Each structure stands twice: as structure tokens, then as C-alpha cells.
Amino acid sequence: MLQLENLHQTFNAGQINEVKALRGIDLHLREEEFVTIIGSNGAGKSTLFNAIAGEFVPTNGRILIDGSDITGWPEYRRAALIGRVFQNPYHGTAAQMTIAENMSLAMLRRQQLGLRLGVSRPRRQKLADLLEPIGLGLEERLNDKVDLLSGGQRQAMTLLMASLSSPKLLLLDEHTAALDPATAVRILEITQSVIEEQKLTTLMITHNMQQALNFGTRTLMLHQGKVVLDIAQEERRGLTVQGLVDKFSQVKQEALMDDELLLSNE
Ligand SMILES: Nc1ncnc2c1ncn2[C@@H]1O[C@H](COP(=O)(O)OP(=O)(O)OP(=O)(O)O)[C@@H](O)[C@H]1O
Ligand SMILES: [Mg+2]
């Protein structure tokens, strides 16, 4: 479904502040696969999402969705294929528009609606029906501006909006990190049910090792722009949080030793 081939991204190439954020990522995602991604700060996780979503054309490599090479596609063209939810609840909805208007816009992306923003009675009913199951009472607040909502309510909306356009791929970048623990759990439950109901192919970045193992069926670890661990099935089922943390430390230690080796050779 999603195929990444030898993906490289270097920022500020040749300058003093050059960063090799992605250093040869190869990844193949099957239809409906739900993959969690872990890795230290600066490992390249968000850059990977930005590359997939088309925020830049990668320095090297190819991105394919269902066999089509989208590497050179502009971001807006990919938006129909890709839904995203960010860490920041204020990113992803239009604060000065109402809940109904925001959701209508999301549906427009898939051309489910005519090009009108006016929210007719049948559409209001449809929106209320979509919001009701998430259990936050948002169906009663269709005319409220989004900036009146809490962070968790906004994340729930962003998630629902991302799924409304029936994306081929859902990218979740630490989307519960800014929420209180109870709300984070609720948003994760909503995430799980949206993914299952709509059979979405999903990549989810998290710093929470428990979440990384509990959700989805496969876990990747990124380090210094590379995939250093890719586990699924029995290997993953047998792994405890402590086991994952140990693997994480081991990878970092090995990288550190490589760096030291490099420095001592200079
Ligand atoms: N637009 C950019 N210009 C220059 N450098 C960038 C840019 N985007 C990311 N980087 C750099 O690329 C590296 C990887 O950053 P990235 O945001 O992908 O990390 P991350 O794995 O998402 O980390 P975190 O867990 O902190 O979110 C970092 O060194 C970062 O400073
Ligand atoms: Mg990030």
C-alpha cells in the first residue's frame, strides 16, 4: 500500500547547520496495517511524516501509494490520500469556524458535498450522527466555534475530520501527547475504533512504549534517520515494555559507540 524506497532527507545541505534527518528509509506497509513508531527526539519521525505528506520533495528516494509514485506530487494533491493528526490540538481545525463548518470542510475534501459551506438540516443531522458515538457531547455543539473546545475535544474532532475524507493513510504524530491521561486514553479508544471501522492503514508516532506495543500489529524504531528495529507478530507479542526500553537503550548505546569510533579516527 505504502512503499518507501531509500528515502533520504538532508536539510541545509552543505551548510554548517546541515542535518541528515532521513538516511535511507525502506518501508513497505500493507493495506490496513497499523504500525507504531518510536524513537528519540530528533530521530526523524516527524520528518518521515512530512516527507510522506509532501511538505518537501525528499533529497533522494521514492514514495509510492498503491504503486503510484507520488514523490513529486504537491502536498494538496496528496491531502486526499492522507489524513494527519498532530501533537498540537490547535493544529488541524480552524478555530474561528464552527464545529459544523470544520466538519463540512473535511467532507468537502472528498467531494462528498456540494461546494457550499451553509449547513443544511440534513447535513446537521449527519454531522451529529458522526459526532455522537465519540461520546464527548459535541453533537450538541455544532454551532460553537472550535476555539471554545478543550484540547481533547479538538483532537477528537481532528481525528474524525481526518477520517471523514476516507484517507488511504492516516498519520498520527504523538496526537495524545498534549492531553491529560484520562483524555489521552479516551482519544486512543476513539482512534482505535475509527481505524477499525474505516479499515485505515495507519502510522502512529508515540513516546509511550506501552502504547507502542499495545496498539497496532507492528512497531518500528527510528534512530538517526534510519529504521533500526522493525518487529511484528511473535517477536512483538513476546516483548514487554522493559524489553522494548532495553532495545531502545542498546540501539542508542551502539550509535554512541559508532560516533566515538568515528571521532577517534578523525
Ligand atoms: N525543516 C527543517 N529544517 C531543518 N532541520 C529540520 C527541519 N525539520 C526537521 N529538522 C531536523 O531534522 C531532525 C529530525 O527532526 P524530527 O522533527 O523529524 O524529529 P522527531 O523524531 O520527530 O523528534 P521528536 O520526538 O522530538 O518530535 C532534527 O535534527 C531536526 O532539527
Ligand atoms: Mg516529532
Structure commentary:
The protein has 266 residues and is of the alpha/beta class. The protein has a single domain, classed as Rossmann fold, CATH 3.40.50. The protein is built from nine helices and ten strands. The protein has helices at residues 45-53, 75-78, 99-109, 121-131, 151-164, 181-198, 209-214, 233-237, 241-265; strands at 2-11, 19-29, 34-38, 60-65, 68-69, 82-85, 169-173, 201-205, 218-223, 226-232. α6 (181-198) links the parallel β7 (169-173) and β8. α3 runs parallel beside α5 and α5 runs parallel beside α6 (181-198). The longest helix is centred in the last third of the chain and has 25 residues, at 241-265. The chain binds adenosine-5'-triphosphate and magnesium ion.
What is the number of independent domains? 1
> Count of DSSP E strands?
10
| Termini Cα gap | 43 Å
How does CATH name the architecture? 3-Layer(aba) Sandwich
Instruction: State the secondary-structure class.
Output: alpha/beta
Q: Which CATH class is shown?
A: Alpha Beta
Mean pLDDT value: 89
CATH topology: Rossmann fold
Beta content comes to: 15-25%
The small molecules bound here are: adenosine-5'-triphosphate, magnesium ion
Overview features:
6-stranded mixed sheet; globular; Rossmann fold; alpha/beta; binds adenosine-5'-triphosphate
Short summary:
The protein has 266 residues and is of the alpha/beta class. It has nine helices and ten strands.
Give a topology summary.
Layout: E1 2-11, E2 19-29, E3 34-38, H1 45-53, E4 60-65, E5 68-69, H2 75-78, E6 82-85, H3 99-109, H4 121-131, H5 151-164, E7 169-173, H6 181-198, E8 201-205, H7 209-214, E9 218-223, E10 226-232, H8 233-237, H9 241-265
Parallel strand pairs: 3-8, 3-9, 6-7, 7-8
Antiparallel strand pairs: 1-2, 1-4, 4-5, 9-10
Helix pairs in contact: 3-5, 5-6
Magnesium ion binds at residues 45-46, 173.
